[in-house]
Write a structure and sequence with these properties.
Layout lengths: L7 E5 L7 H11 L3 E6 L5 H10 L4 E4 L5 H14 L5 E4 L18 H22 L7 E6 L12 H21 L4 E8 L13 H11 L8 H12 L10 E4 L17
Parallel strand pairs: 1-2, 1-4, 2-3, 4-5, 5-6, 6-7
Length: 263
């Protein structure tokens, strides 16, 4: 069954075939969506171009989301080439590596600004430009992490940024709802991506996860993609302002929880 037949999705954040954004893109495409892709920098183009071919994405544009003019230009081109947009995927986050390797109390002013600008304000900017192209309503989704609700070791300023991102999701949902645009966040468990490699101790946390989460297995980019299909479809037509966990139940556990027998 093609849940997204006739819909157009514009995805930001594909870096390589292990990206969460790529898992989402593949699933959206498999359910009939027409795909447009945007990547962060020119050095990523050689990685993203072959992926764009796999999903027949003729719209492939570089965009620096910290540059207002670049964002405006991209959406002008999207309006020309894609016409309307039904789904916007924001899978963008960044903090300087050094901000993730020292105590949170030592976060620099510039590092804080960078994390908030790239990881949070970019959602506001993209939503503001995408909403006018969502003439029949639409679905905007972003990627968060449990470190925005609870303290996660070495996540530091990114945890604060994710908390701001989740609040931004709710405010955008309230603002854009009257226009028929839904805004939600997906919160996956740990996934081995390019950005995750910058978090100190991530490998140990990843290895331990499947023994603690109630479902006793790792989360994949395909799992996240399936949730994105649901959020992008009419099946989630009255769901907005929510953070949807795709973490095998990990987020329901209290400290010391998850001691059930493994089958």
């Amino acid at each position: 069954m093609s849940l997204l037949e006739g819909k157009t999705a514009l995805v930001f954040g594909v870096a390589n075939e292990r990206s969460i954004a790529w898992g989402i893109t593949r699933r959206l495409f498999s359910h009939g969506a027409r795909i447009g892709l945007s990547y962060a920098g020119e050095k990523l183009r050689k990685r993203v171009e072959p992926l764009a071919e796999q999903v027949d994405a003729s719209f492939l544009e570089r965009c620096d989301v910290t540059d207002d003019e670049a964002v405006a230009t991209l959406f002008e081109r999207a309006a020309e080439q894609l016409g309307t947009i039904d789904i916007l995927v924001h899978a963008i986050a960044y903090a300087p590596r050094e901000e993730l390797s020292r105590p949170f109390s030592e976060t620099s002013r510039s590092g804080f600004h960078t994390a908030m600008d790239v990881s949070v304000y970019s959602l506001i900017s993209l939503a503001n430009h995408a909403a006018p192209l969502m003439r029949d309503g639409g679905s905007i989704m972003t990627m968060t992490y449990y470190g925005g609700e609870k303290v996660a070791s070495n996540y530091n300023v990114m945890g604060v940024a994710k908390a701001a991102l989740e609040s931004t999701t709710r405010y955008l949902a309230a603002d854009l709802g009257p226009r028929g645009v839904r805004v939600n966040a997906i919160s996956p468990g740990p996934i081995r991506t390019l950005s995750a490699a910058g978090v100190k101790g991530f490998r140990a946390m990843y290895d331990e996860f499947s023994s603690l989460a109630p479902m006793r297995r790792q989360v994949t980019i395909e799992d996240v993609g399936d949730t994105a299909v649901w959020l992008g479809s009419e099946l989630a037509g009255n769901v907005t302002g929510q953070t949807v966990f795709v973490d095998g139940g990990y987020s329901v556990l209290a400290p010391g929880g998850g001691s059930g027998e493994r089958e």
